[in-house]
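Structure request: DUF904 domain-containing protein, Polaromonas aquatica.
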Amino acid sequence: MSNQTQIDQITERVERLLLRYEELQRTNTLLNEQLGVLTHERDSLRSRLSAARARVDALLERLPENANNGHGLHAPAGTD
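Returned structure:
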């Protein structure tokens, strides 16, 4: 194998590696963008969940005490 053939092979491999590197950089950029979007969505959902929990807690506080026992249902008169 001549030196020129080896150099050509090395050159070809380096070019392929450079292409692969560029492809990986693009993929990494896209994944980082997706991560940012998903992180924002997660934070938004957490915030909404917290607000919903606060509303449910406020509604539970407003329930009469006897509604907390027996699921808030009262038996009709004379069916005891």
